[in-house]
Amino acid sequence: MDIAAFLGLEPTADRAVWRLPVTPGICTGFNFLFGGAAMAAATLALEAATERPLVWATAQYLSFVRPPAVMDITVTPLVVGNQVTQARATGRADGHDIIVVTAALGSRPVEASGTWLTPPTAPSPRDCPEAANFRGVPTGIRERLDARLAEGRTPEQLDGARGTGRTVLWVRMPELDELGAAALGILADHVPFGIGQALGMRAGGNSLDNTLRIARLVPTQWALLDVRIDAVANGFAHGRVDMWSEDGVLMATGAQSAVVRF
User: Fold this and answer.
1) Nearest to residue 79, comparing CAs of 104, 111, 42?
2) Which of 68, 153, 165, 179 has the fewest CB atoms within 10 Å, i.e. is most exposed?
3) Structure pTM?
4) 141: which residues sit within 8 A by CB, 6+ positions away?
5) What is the fold, at CATH topology level, of the domain defined by 3-106?
């Protein structure tokens, strides 16, 4: 299955306009559209409309939408260059803006390359326990992800003692044929998982934004997510995530801010 089928994203006669039926399978456990799924749908629309691969995208989450609504995604090119397109995708449902994504897309024939980050040391995903969320019950899109805890605590172990701020997860999407840029947009929305780990409490967060930067896409079944919470203050958490292939290739990085929820 490709990511468009996973999301249920539908094209229209206009290649700049797409439709996303909001179904329980792409929602959170609280039955509203998962931010990473909205980001993924917007990313697909941007790549299709511009006919260029994603380099960078940042999403601002403006409102909630619940089943059985339909979110319409409209892509607006802002600047079209020889190698790079800057564009915006806006998702609307029930007369309200739900998400706005600004992105750069393209590629350049430059041979210089390298990675200056180091992947975390982690056991095989098959040797790691299930990564349960702070509610302890996988529902919605969480039921469609296989997440394993390589470094961190189970909900039962969150005893109020502050953690290191670092959580390492193996995640795969069994229904997908590959983890492309849009799928990594879903995985990048795992920064809030680290909030409870950092605080040592049963906590999470509602994402305010989601920024995705693509490094190098390679075939991999599992992605290793190195989540770090930088700070929690004034009711908000700020963090980032590095996403690695099974072979240790840095595929993408992400960053988020979230409203802390207990």
Assistant:
1) 104
2) 68
3) 0.95
4) 25, 26, 27, 28, 34, 36, 37, 186
5) Porin (2.40.160)
The string of pLDDT tens digits covering residues 117-152 is 999 999 999 999 999 875 555 679 999 999 999 999
Closest CA to 120 of 145, 149, 151, 146: 151
Q: In the chain, which residues fall in CATH 3.10.129.10? A: 125-261
Going by DSSP bridges, is the β-strand pair 166-172/146-151 parallel, antiparallel, or unpaired?
antiparallel
C-alpha to C-alpha distances, 83 to 45, 46, 153, 158, 231, nearest whole angstrom:
19, 15, 45, 48, 37
Phi, psi of 189 (to 5 degrees): -85, 25
Give average pLDDT by consecutive 10-residue segment, the chain, 262 residues. 98 97 96 97 98 98 97 98 98 97 97 96 96 70 96 95 97 96 97 97 95 98 98 98 98 98 94
The pair of three-digit structure tokens given for residue 84, joined into one six-digit string: 């790079």
Options 3.40.50.720, 1.20.1070.10, 2.102.10.10, 3.10.129.10; which CATH number does 125-261 get? 3.10.129.10
Amino acid at 233: A
